[in-house]
User: Which sequence fits this backbone?
């Protein structure tokens, strides 16, 4: 039961990361703001991270290396938000 | 390997927390609802990362996989809700 629930939630989470990435890609196409492209790429990295965790299994030592994808994703978002707030170029400024 | 794991999970949690703080600040400044939903999303992801650290570093005998997944999923549902209802505005 727990294993099935874990797989169900993991799959739902992977799909939600992918969907969020698609939405951010759509915002990028609509507005041209690079912040959205960075967010899209980062969320797709999170989706890949979650998928690989499900594939390798939590007890696999390689799972720790897979977490590097998650760290990279969050770093991309962090850098994108900071750049957006510091930049003077219109395509880099946050759209709000 | 253990030090690598501690550093990895710590950096993951801290960067996620930093993202959340920045997004909350942006929301308080601009009052754009999509920023609120995104900040709440990162709140869920930060909670997930904190639980990962606790689960895999502080209490390896614990099994918080379901709680971790629920925290992340709750965060993502906030974001998707915001996309569907508030993105056009």
Assistant:
């Amino acid at each position: 039961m727990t294993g099935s629930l874990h797989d169900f939630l993991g799959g739902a989470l992977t799909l939600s990361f992918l969907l969020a990435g698609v939405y951010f890609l759509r915002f990028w196409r609509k507005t041209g703001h690079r912040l959205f492209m960075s967010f899209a790429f980062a969320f797709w990295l999170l989706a890949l991270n979650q998928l690989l965790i499900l594939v390798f299994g939590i007890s696999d030592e390689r799972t720790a290396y897979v977490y590097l994808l998650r760290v990279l994703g969050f770093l991309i978002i962090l850098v994108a938000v900071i750049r957006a707030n510091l930049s003077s170029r219109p395509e880099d400024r946050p759209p709000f | 390997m253990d030090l690598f794991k501690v550093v990895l999970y710590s950096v993951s949690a801290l960067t996620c927390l930093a993202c959340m703080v920045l997004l909350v600040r942006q929301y308080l400044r601009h009052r754009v609802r999509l920023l609120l939903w995104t900040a709440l999303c990162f709140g869920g992801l930060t909670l997930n990362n904190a639980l990962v650290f606790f689960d895999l570093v502080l209490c390896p005998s614990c099994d918080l996989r379901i709680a971790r997944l629920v925290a992340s999923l709750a965060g993502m549902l906030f974001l998707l809700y915001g996309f569907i209802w508030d993105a056009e505005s």
